[in-house]
Design brief:
Blueprint (H helix, E strand, L loop, with lengths): L9 H18 L7 H5 L1 H4 L5 H20 L26 H15 L4 H16 L3 H5 L12 E5 L5 E5 L2 H13 L17 H14 L9 H14 L4 H8 L4 H4 L7 H11 L10
């Protein structure tokens, strides 16, 4: 149902499967579990983060909603599950200086014309220049790159397609990569198995950060996506436009980035407010 009707992504399906199997290992058959059994999960989850408990509870609630919808159960015991208030964590971000150091290292290495370094430059240009998710990036088919338009066709969460702009820098990096791209694969970033995995991308980004003199703990593919959103917002991008570029179904997800723009908002108030500078303006 999650795959066919909701179009859930593979990672979402895997996470739900793990959560359901974990709960069943603790309380026995989920199909026959009652409110008391589900209520006991609160104690088992006591040491977990609120966001983790919220995700596990959500998986079970959707499971029992499915059972009742299909007539496999007459009751829904999921009201006994804990309902923690999970505060959305603020995204990690990179400063403009850190981004410049990161890309300076990548460009220096790519100038040696080593295939791996040229590929790496193309990867990070798309992460930071187009705000792609790691899973979207590694699975890009080569025909997603148009020859005559500055856009990529990306298939995101829920198999939803969207168009994302490709900067002039990223197009140049892609052109360099396509000149040496190993033909015969349908993927833009192939590997011996299928395509570059998101785990390997994560490792490559960490390794590049280390060579650039940055703390690897601060840099990841998702942090580069956060930096894309943050720096666009700082530059005056509209929140709705940012929502479309990032592929967020709910603008509430995009609004998390507004916190990083506090300095610009303070400067705006100080500059434009009628009482700015201590003088009343007409």
């Amino acid at each position: 149902m999650l795959a066919a009707e909701r179009g859930a992504a593979a990672n979402t399906l895997a996470a739900y499967k793990t959560d359901l199997e974990s709960a069943e290992a603790r309380i026995g058959s989920l199909a026959r579990a009652d409110r008391a059994a589900l209520g006991a999960l609160a104690g088992a989850w006591a040491m977990l983060a609120p966001s983790t408990v919220a995700r596990k509870s959500s998986a079970l609630r959707q499971f029992y909603a499915f059972l009742t919808d299909e007539g496999l159960r007459d009751d829904d015991p999921s009201s006994a599950l804990p309902r923690p208030v999970a505060r959305r964590p603020l995204p990690k971000i990179l400063s403009h200086d850190e981004v410049e150091r990161f890309f300076a290292q990548a460009e220096m290495e790519a100038n040696a014309d080593r295939p791996g370094a040229v590929r790496m430059l193309a990867l990070i240009e798309l992460l930071y220049g187009s705000g792609l998710r790691a899973t979207e990036l590694v699975a890009l088919p080569v025909n997603a790159v148009p020859r005559d338009a500055p856009f990529l066709t990306v298939t995101g969460k829920g198999s939803q397609q969207r168009m994302v702009p490709v900067s002039a820098r990223a197009r140049q990096a892609l052109s360099r990569w396509l000149e040496i791209w190993p033909s015969g694969s349908r993927y833009l970033f192939p590997s011996p198995g299928k395509h570059l995995t998101r785990i390997r991308l994560y490792q490559l980004v960490k390794e590049l950060a280390l060579r650039a003199g940055l703390d690897p703990a601060k840099v990841s593919p998702h942090v580069l996506r956060h930096a894309f959103a943050t720096h666009l917002l700082e530059g005056g991008a509209d929140l709705r436009v940012l929502q479309t570029l990032l592929g967020h179904a709910d603008i509430a997800t995009t609004q998390i980035y507004t916190h990083v723009d506090a300095a610009r908002l303070v400067a705006l108030v100080n500059e434009r407010h009628p009482l700015a500078g201590g003088e009343r303006r007409p």
